Amino acid sequence: MIKLIEKYPILSLVLFVIIMLGFTIDAIPVTIMEARNFISAREMLTDDNWILTTMNGEARYQKPPLPTWITAFFGMLFGIKSVLALRWPALLFLASIGVTTFFLSKRMELPKSHSIINGFIVISSFYVIGIIIEAPWDIYTHGFMLMALYQLYIMFKQQKTSIIHSLLFVLFLAGSVLSKGPVSLYVLFLSFVIAYAIAFKLKGNLLHVLKLISLLIFGIVLGGWWYFHVRIADPETFASIASKETSNWSSYNVRPFYYYWSFFVQSGIWTIVAFVSLIYPYMKSRVSNLKAYRFSFFWTIIAVVLLSVIPEKKSRYLMPVLIPLAFNIGFYIDYLIREFKNMKDKREVFPVYVQFGIIAVVALLFGIIGFKLAPFDDRLVLINFILIQIILVVIGIAMLWYLKRKNIKVVFYLCIAFMMSLGAVGLPLAKLTLQDDYKPVSELQNTYMPLYSWSDVSPEAIYNYGDKIQKIKTPKGIFIPKEEEFNLLTGTENPEEIETLSRFYHIVYLATYDLNTAEKGTRSHRSRLVNKLYRLSRKK
What's the pLDDT tens digit per position in 386-395? Predict the structure, then answer.
């Protein structure tokens, strides 16, 4: 199997993503950021708002439209109500990051077997996977930027700007800017260039440098056309949104400088080897290509420093750092594959046994204690449950077997199989976590009664409903619907907040709609996902 993977690396990386998540990722509830993207995509199709993007009928310029265009295209082909279809574009970009990492590794003169390891590491890292649903714009902007950096690396090495590489660099750079503005330019691009200058030295004549700078400017301008258009077409709204977004950088989610110093933890199952791979004095005499390792090391560290100097900090902002970190981890894994059988120092072998031993034990424990959690009242789910238990137990036993024999290459690919199994067979079990109070807003589509909201309801509820929900309470005052009778959705449990309407309407509480999959009182429970429904009838 490993020989087949190394023979067909691109196909293997793409199939890994498709098998792991391609048919099961809809088991995870739609997140708030996803809902915003999906709503805008839906309104592109229903209202033709492709340029001046909207959410629930109101201007939504916080994010540029390229990811939403792509999402809308998949929604048009496979159905805007299919969460699986709407998530597929992000999955394909996840696969593209693995493929581009492989190609960039090859360009760095790393062996094919080493390069594909780098590719698998990045697409199996926790937050690289998690970002596709937590903040879907990020996977696009960093995916496009990595493609652009691959072209830039080639031009750096060749010291010339060929037409094809120049064109691809400009297009991918523009795609990144049109996906989330200058974010990836700052985190990935700037750190890449600085790290390259440190590790390889920037070479070439002045004309070559000027050509690269002109390509950079052209790519930014091409990607920035939407911002200029919206600024002219709707200047007041755009200025208000831009001002709020800019102020967030210095006043919202402010964290200390060292907030990101545990960034390697975001790699998930690779946490321990990620930490070791960053110990430069230890690694520099053990890697197969010191210049390439020095490049990925500085690329990682500089990216973290650049993020750290910005006052606003969130865990998801670390996602791009995991791309160069994957190269670092790959150097360490490659070293273990070559030398682990010869290691005698316990200080050197201990982290390896801990890293892979934990994964093996987790796989085994799931199989041992899983039967106590098994849903015996549903035959199909029970079969799925038993299947994942068997697979994980086999993987756990195999990992311990090959770890004992110090065959790290097989152990590494068993980790990949572990991740793939969790997604392909284990992820559907997430649907078992639905709480008893779960009641989707989508049920209201069948009531044939006009629906309004008191003020703002969560984006998740609006997407789940399947259409726009007009607000009664607006900045300009109270809007009075033309209907004599209608339903009103509100996020508050206290009807006193809609007491104003009691002068004109009889108000009757109907039901509570709850999109939470977690029990009330737990950390995962979100009050914004709970909505009260009232029937309002005009007083005679």
Answer: 888 889 999 9
